[in-house]
Amino acid sequence: MSNYHIKSFEEYFQVYRKSIENPEGFWEEIAEEHFTWRKKWNNVLSWDFTKPEVKWFEGAQLNITENCLDRHLSTRGDKTAILFEPNDPNAPAEHITYKQLHERVCKFANALKSKGIQKGDRVCIYLPMIPELAVSVLACARIGAVHSVVFAGFSATALSTRINDCDAKMVITSDGSYRGTKTIDLKGIVDEALEDCPGVDSVLVAKRINSGIQMKEGRDYWLQSLLDDAYGDCTIEIMNAEDPLFILYTSGSTGMPKGMLHTTAGYMVYSAYTFKNVFDYRENDVYWCTADIGWITGHSYIVYGPLVNGATTVMFEGVPSYPDFGRFWKIVEKHKITQFYTAPTAIRALAKHGTKLVEKHDLSSLKVLGTVGEPINEEAWHWYNENIGKKKSPIVDTWWQTETGGIMITPIPFSTPTKPTYATLPFIGIQPALMDENGNELNDNQVDGRLCIKYPWPSMARTIWGNHQRYKDTYFSAFENMYFTGDGALRDEVGYYRITGRVDDVIIVSGHNLGTAPIEDAINEHQAVAESAIVGFPHDVKGNALYGYVTLKDSGESRDQDNLRKEINQLITDRIGPIAKLDKIQFTNGLPKTRSGKIMRRILRKIAFNEADQLGDISTLLNPEVVDEIITNVI
Ligand code: WTA
């Protein structure tokens, strides 16, 4: 038997060693014993980081939804697959069994086919956290269509950019969404986006809020009427191991968001294996990840990882603050949640409201707590451990990325001793390295450097959709023969890793990755703005907030500054979404630049951090005089 479920620290070391000494043999055994294949592979792994090209399980054939659904029907047909908790706390939760989910996915898949969707076509999904979101993802996978989920908080411009980049033929959306006491007109946003998307032929619309929306004749279809006509079984499309499964966009340091492409077999094996072990998932557990399926965390650890393991996975439509800040704990009590996985920003927001709302609820069902998305600070870690875990539930601080597809550095609960703010040790099969700026690997403990991965793992993204060169430049060029993560990390005296944060121009705000370039582009569209630069600064709930330095054209200098700030934030909301709004905007007469004209964000960051006394030598700047002015007027 292979080591599918690790149960002790000793076993972790044993299995880890095995996975490093013979990665191919190790992954072959895991793949062989725990998944359903239509045809086995000819070759476990071929790779070349210089191209870069990575292939896992070449020659194998499968369908990931057969692994998520069909193979559970005989043993778990009546078990709840998806437990849907709606926004309205008084509305009933919905328990969707494996049998029902199978039927819903089949019907949806047939509806996609009836609108001409075929293997390889891209389908953009822009839905709130309702069951149709998971169902549509699986329906695409069942027929081999490539799903690209766009988080339903993005604006029309952000949506159309993504639709056009992956050349999606269809968009799946709803008439609107609930968010606490508010509703959001998703269909209106889609209509606006589609004005710029000539490649989209059809839009499927789920009914959620019963708003009176416009349906465009010949393009828009009510989902329900297609489902009513659809047959409840749909044979799987047989996929090759390396066929695309999905594209998911993530922000980069510069330019357009990157469409990370994930493929079928390796992603399935790794997301399932990590899910089982990182959450110590057992058959009757009720697992809840609070992320949105619009992010990678939702793809791997709400949909695929749990369902491949036959788990019960909770989908929550609402927000942590509605009807009050006790909602999460109420849900934990109501559904007897055993694993709870959330982001540090949510923990900080809830901690701010004290422990009264926590104490009202019985949290004794909890066994494992997880965190993801950004470094967790010491205070939040302890609050989580003491008040939610009652010092009994281990916290798994899981480090990973959209690009990695699955969790990379993490404790194994009940095995790895945890340490506040440390993601601890590499997961099975993962070979991290810390590099110095000159490209040398730092082999000792008690060092910090740039975090790289030396060897392929099954769920790594294979390319950036439509731009392989950018994939190579971004991830495989900084250090020879290594995948560069963009993060800094330190390794302590026993070899535990702590992620210190991004070393590039990506800023993580409330767990969402934001690139500076698209935000600056949005600001620069304002007619009064000459130039701008964005940096992050520490924020007690969001982790980081955005600080914008903006220089105005002469014509803008007489304008009311508060109005300008509002207009700038409105532009950002329109172009990207409200998550990218700036907390502080400082108008300046210039931005510090190098002699070659590059904006020195490092200096602006120090100033926003209130560390202007540590600027170092600025005499080599093109315009050192602007620095004093910026420091004097800092907000
Ligand atoms: C950061 C989310 C510290 C990191 C799964 C990474 C973390 C980026 C952690 C990827 C963690 C994620 N501790 N930092 N446990 N988890 N990050 O693509 O900077 O949305 O590069 O994937 O989030 O964010 P993404």
Tell me what the structure shows:
The protein has a 7-stranded mixed beta sheet, sandwiched between helices. A 5-stranded parallel beta sheet has the order 7-6-8-11-12, with helices on both faces. It has a 4-stranded antiparallel beta sheet with strand order 21-22-24-25, with no helix packed on it. The chain has 635 residues and is of the alpha/beta class. The chain is globular. Among the domains are: 69-237, 3-Layer(aba) Sandwich (Rossmann fold); 509-632, ANL, C-terminal domain (GMP Synthetase, Chain A, domain 3, 2-Layer Sandwich), CATH 3.30.300. Helix 10 (265-278) crosses helix 11 (296-308) and helix 13 (344-351) packs across helix 15 (378-388). It contains 20 helices and 30 strands. Bound molecules: 5'-O-[(S)-ethoxy(hydroxy)phosphoryl]adenosine. 5'-O-[(S)-ethoxy(hydroxy)phosphoryl]adenosine binds at residues 250, 295-297, 372-375, 397-402, 423, 485-487, 499, 502, 508, 513.
